[in-house]
Specification:
The complex is a heterodimer of chains A (about 500) and B (about 280). By secondary structure, chain A is α/β, with parallel strands linked by helices. Chain A has helices at about 1-10, 15-40, 45-60, 70-75, 80-85, 85-105, 120-135, 135-140, 145-160, 170-185, 215-245, 250-270, 280-285, 290-310, 310-315, 320-330, 335-345, 345-360, 365-385, 415-420, 440-455, 470-480, 485-490, and strands at about 70, 275, 390-395, 400-410, 430-440, 460-465. Classes of the chains: A alpha/beta (about 500), B alpha/beta (about 280). The interface of A and B includes residues 27, 172, 246, 283 and 330 of A.
């Protein structure tokens, strides 16, 4: 079976995979260059990274047909590390990120993804698109008018050409036409060569030149941890997008470990850390890529194009790459989420917007996701807290009141629970029927205690009926009202 | 009541599979389930748009485009599958099967066979499926996978059904071959056939002991047999015997050896199924 699977994953779609690989390589180059510049390193660091990550993940990855490489989300996290300590420390951080991701896979942290709600995912994707777009702004703000003209012309080509032919990738046409135009017309705008060193050879194996000691570890660890989190988040989210496209299920755990391995390879060959890319994965599937071969080809073609056409790549005007990246950011943004702002429940919209705002404000996708997850948890708690009702009825001789509690009693509904009882009513006996309620936590148990004790101080006898099993367990373990010195203990708090 | 499961597709073997299944169902007084699986291949791209540009709503557009394509194709194959099963059921009833059910499944054939294994007693398949290459006499890729994955007896149909009168037990003394002998002795499926017992290999005390065991078992069941030990390679010996004695059905133990050994020396079972031009009843 394994041999059969292997063959199926690599060679069942050769033509589609190779063509898609070429198309994707073109969409990888601008991002690798653009985000190397953002991270403050030479373009070759990002290009080597994209090659290493794509080629390694083609073999080790768990989600067939997904594209990974040097990404903006991860690059944005390493800016201060590069500024303060230099490239070598970035390479160590990349290695450590890889190790942490492998550990995350070993400990099955991928299952934590279930706590990331759909709204958070949408917010993440939108924030990502905004970050990609904002990363282009340094090229645009205060530039000559020629740059604007080139970018606009590039966008027209990218979106216009597919109306006539779908056989040649329009980003390629955009890059070729704009490069040719600037060379022929002698327009002087910034080119890729102005941004730093391009690769002049195949990547070479090198251990980072840093002292391997405690101090180094302490410097890189915080960066590695955030890069691990963001890398895994983006990869897991992209994996589920590709799952939907292809109607197949990827192995998320293997993807975690595979990404770790890819980052280790990248770090050893002079590349920075990366992860999966939503925009490029969409392009891959759209171009007919389905197998591991397309991911592999995208890396290999990227390296071939960059190494062997270095002279020409260096002359590409930055404006052409900016146009391609604007396209990627537009394609990544979930435009339907704007339309849905009015339709969806307010709480999910708030979660989505909060995620976007926090990410854009901090340049850190992990912080946005944490805020989003916390908010959705709070909103959920509030909603479930409303699923609690207390009704009551007096019996015939008006001496006994029976309260019926239905629903979930926990920290978010404990106050409502207490408020539902009428302690001012002078009555002999109170029966509390909780057979249709659930007591989840200490707050719930504390609330029940409080109710019982309050009634007792008014001279009312309290009977509790029908604590179901789950509730009984937690009440038994935690409650104090049925222990002798109940009041003292409660008052002591 | 016993249940037979017959796997159908668009290959030339389908008619014969139905006939064999109807024959077996009649003999076993079993109900007959006809199964067809609709395989989709998400690992292959159906369309490709090499423009490489993604615009507004790229994700949802692409998803709905892919879903629509799959939907159209699946609807067609659903209709086709229903039609195929209806025709097959009709044919099976004509051939005397009374209790016929149709079963249409999505997904991989072998996965379905494994999933339903507890619900059937005998599996009927053709030697080759719709996608296999007839000219080279290669076996269908599904057959060997099925035989390895399933532990029920499997009736492998040949290209056309002929009335079955003479049964050959290809015997090598292995555990699965012994089971084949036991089935020949007791199962109504193989009862009343002219029975030949053949062992390939040199005369040796070990072989003789195996043969004696089988002979005794069949005698006890009151089945008259012609037993022979013929020197030579099993596949050649059995194929020759089938031809010279006009055998209509061969039964044998299946895949006694490990995959590794098979990778190197090839599998006797596979060779036999390929070289004997009659139906084969494989026992695990």
């Amino acid at each position: 079976m394994t041999l059969r699977n292997l063959r199926q994953e690599w060679f069942s779609n050769i033509r589609g995979d190779v063509l898609a690989g070429i198309v994707v390589a073109l969409a990888l180059i601008p991002e690798a260059i653009a985000f190397s510049i953002i991270a403050g390193v030479d373009p070759k660091v990002g290009l080597y990274a994209s090659f290493c990550i794509a080629a390694t993940l083609a073999i080790t990855g768990g989600r067939v047909g997904m594209i990974s490489g040097a990404t903006g989300s991860v690059a944005l996290l390493m800016v201060t590390l590069v500024k303060d300590h230099g490239l070598q420390y970035l390479l160590v951080a990349t290695l450590l990120t890889g190790v942490l991701q492998i550990l995350a896979g070993v400990f099955k942290l991928n299952i934590l993804m279930r706590f990331v709600s759909r709204s958070v995912v949408t917010g993440f994707v939108n924030a990502l698109a905004i970050l990609i777009f904002m990363a282009q702004l340094p090229e645009l703000i205060g530039a000559q008018w020629q740059v604007y003209a080139l970018v606009v012309a590039g966008l027209v080509i990218i979106y216009g050409v597919p109306r006539f032919t779908k056989v040649i990738p329009s980003p390629l046409i955009c890059i070729v036409v704009l490069t040719a135009f600037t060379l022929v017309a002698g327009v002087h705008v910034r080119t890729v060569a102005d941004m730093g060193k391009l690769p002049d050879s195949l990547p070479i194996f090198l251990l980072p030149q840093v002292p391997f000691n405690w101090h180094t570890l302490m410097v890189v660890l915080p960066y590695s941890v955030t890069m691990m989190v963001v890398g895994l988040l983006e990869s897991m989210m992209t994996a589920s997008v590709v799952d939907d496209f292809t109607d197949t299920v990827g192995n998320k755990r293997r993807e975690c470990m595979g990404l770790g391995a890819a980052n280790i390879v990248s770090g050893l060959f002079g590349g920075m850390a990366g992860c999966a890319m939503i925009g490029q994965s969409v392009i891959n599937v759209k171009s007919g890529g389905r197998g591991r071969l397309s991911t592999f080809c995208s890396g290999v073609f990227l390296l071939i194009m960059v190494v062997f056409a270095k002279e020409w790549v260096g002359r590409i005007p930055m404006a052409a790459l900016v146009a391609v990246m604007i396209m990627v950011s537009i394609g990544t943004f979930s435009w339907s989420s704007l339309k849905n702002l009015r339709l969806h429940p307010k709480s999910s919209s708030v979660v989505m917007i909060a995620t976007v705002v926090v990410v854009v404000a901090t340049d850190d996708l992990s912080k946005g996701v944490i805020v989003g997850v916390l908010l959705s948890a709070l909103f959920f708690a509030r909603k479930v807290g409303r699923v609690m009702h207390v009704t009551s009825a007096l019996n015939a001789d008006e001496r006994i009141r029976e309260y019926r509690v239905t629903g979930q009693v926990f920290f978010a509904s404990a106050e409502t629970f207490i408020a539902a009882f009428d302690f001012r009513e002078a009555i002999d006996q109170v029966r509390i029927d909780v057979s249709r309620a659930h007591f989840w936590d200490l707050s719930a148990v504390g609330a029940l205690d409080k109710v019982v004790i309050k009634f007792r101080r008014e001279g009312t006898t309290v009977d509790i009926h029908g604590l179901n099993e789950a509730s009984a367990m937690i009440v038994d373990r935690l409650a104090i009202h049925d222990k002798p010195d109940a009041i003292e203990s409660l008052m002591g708090h | 009541m016993k249940t037979l499961l017959a796997c159908l597709d668009d290959s030339t073997y389908t008619q014969s599979v139905i006939d064999h299944a109807a024959w077996a169902a009649g003999r076993l007084d079993a109900q007959l389930e006809l199964m067809h699986t609709l395989e989709r291949h998400p690992e292959r791209a159906q369309t490709s748009n090499l423009s490489g540009s993604i615009g507004l709503g790229a994700k949802s557009d692409l998803l709905s485009e892919l879903a629509t394509l799959d939907e159209q194709r699946s609807k067609l194959s659903l209709q086709h599958g229903h039609a195929l099963l209806a025709t097959a059921a009709e044919r099976a009833r004509q051939r005397g099967a009374t209790n016929v059910h149709e079963r249409l499944r999505h997904g991989d054939l072998i996965d379905a066979l494994v999933e339903f294994e507890p619900t059937y007693d005998v599996l009927v398949v053709g030697k080759r499926g719709a996608s296999a290459d007839m000219a080279k006499l290669h076996l269908g890729s599904n057959l060997e996978r099925a035989v390895r994955a399933i532990h029920r007896p499997i009736l492998v149909a040949s290209r056309a059904f002929k009335p079955i009168e003479r049964l050959l037990i290809a015997f090598d003394g292995s555990a699965s071959a012994r089971k084949a002998v036991e089935l020949a002795a007791h199962s109504p499926l193989l009862a009343g056939l002219e029975c030949h017992l053949v062992m390939a290999g040199a005369e040796s005390p070990a072989h003789a002991a195996h043969m004696a065991w089988a002979r005794e078992l069949l005698d006890a069941a009151g089945i008259a047999i012609r037993a022979e030990t013929i020197p030579g390679h099993a596949d050649a010996v059995i194929a020759d015997y089938v031809r010279s004695h006009h055998i209509d059905l061969v039964t044998m133990g299946a895949y006694g050896h490990s995959r590794v050994r098979q990778l190197i020396v090839g599998s006797t079972t596979t060779t036999m199924v390929r070289s004997c031009l009659v139906p084969i009843f494989l026992v695990r």
